[in-house]
């Protein structure tokens, strides 16, 4: 028996990177999996490769964020587990962030998870059934570097939302947790390093050499941890925002 046998899992932002890793891991553990993405060609390719159900959605639109859950309920009867993995990481400091950039971060990194959770918890409570939610947050929720001001602000908001919703729905047996992931080797990070930091083809190797464990975070490792949190094997844990990183926050040299 897989850890998610007979569960219906929705991964928002699941077409690539960490989200795609979670899609694959959840399928491996026996779940019926649906995932969202904006780009049809990428989503349809992953769906063909895995057998997962692709739902095209722009999560910046609150109606589509909640609607992603409603489409999965219509197709599969329910949502047992939700993962919010979509994220916007475009750069901006306190001094150069425009209102438009700030709003874009709030829309994807806070508002989309809020309304997806609203839809999922509404389904769970209407059925009087337990459920689990995992939010992919960031270690930037602790503060973050100067060039990630709107991102850090949004992720701190998502950490607060995770705890608030977990507390509100603990008696409904809906467990909600989050992961503050660190620097992770994904397609999106590759594009970000090249676009914003002038990185060359060897940026991964250089970055890995500078890390305590000799590598960046890996999507498949994060996915395994997410599957554990979604499953009954994680027991009663709810409202936890876990630092999944090789930085030890609060440690000093």
From TrEMBL:
Pfam families: adh_short_C2. SUPFAM superfamilies: NAD(P)-binding Rossmann-fold domains. One of its GO terms (molecular function) is oxidoreductase activity. Keywords: Oxidoreductase. InterPro entries: NAD(P)-bd_dom_sf, Sc_DH/Rdtase_CS, SDR_fam. Signal peptide: none annotated. The keyword Lyase does not apply. PANTHER family: OXIDOREDUCTASE, SHORT-CHAIN DEHYDROGENASE/REDUCTASE FAMILY (AFU_ORTHOLOGUE AFUA_5G02870), SHORT-CHAIN DEHYDROGENASE_REDUCTASE FAMILY PROTEIN. Belongs to the short-chain dehydrogenases/reductases (SDR) family. This is SDR family oxidoreductase. It comes from Streptomyces montanus. The lineage of its organism: Bacteria, Bacillati, Actinomycetota, Actinomycetes, Kitasatosporales.
């Amino acid at each position: 028996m897989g850890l998610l046998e007979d569960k219906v899992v929705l991964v928002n932002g699941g077409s690539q990177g960490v989200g795609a890793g979670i899609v694959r891991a959840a399928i491996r553990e026996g779940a019926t999996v649906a995932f969202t993405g904006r780009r049809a060609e990428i989503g349809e390719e992953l769906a063909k490769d895995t057998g997962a159900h692709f739902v095209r959605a722009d999560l910046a639109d609150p109606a589509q964020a909640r609607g992603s859950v409603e489409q999965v309920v219509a197709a599969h009867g329910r949502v047992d587990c939700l993962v919010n993995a979509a994220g916007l990481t475009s750069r901006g400091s306190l001094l150069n962030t425009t209102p438009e950039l700030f709003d874009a971060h709030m829309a994807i990194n806070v508002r989309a998870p809020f309304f997806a959770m609203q839809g999922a918890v509404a389904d769970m409570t209407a059925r009087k059934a337990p459920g689990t939610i995992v939010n992919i947050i960031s270690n930037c929720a602790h503060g973050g570097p100067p060039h990630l001001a709107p991102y850090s602000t949004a992720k701190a908001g998502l950490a607060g939302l995770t705890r608030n919703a977990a507390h509100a729905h603990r008696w409904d047996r809906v467990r909600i947790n989050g992961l503050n992931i660190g620097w992770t080797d994904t397609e999106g990070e590759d594009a970000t390093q090249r676009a914003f930091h002038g990185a060359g083809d060897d940026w991964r190797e250089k970055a890995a050499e500078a890390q305590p464990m000799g590598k960046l975070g890996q999507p498949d490792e994060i996915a395994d941890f997410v599957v554990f949190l979604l499953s009954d094997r994680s027991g009663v844990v709810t409202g936890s925002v876990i630092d999944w990183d090789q930085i030890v926050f609060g440690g000093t040299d």
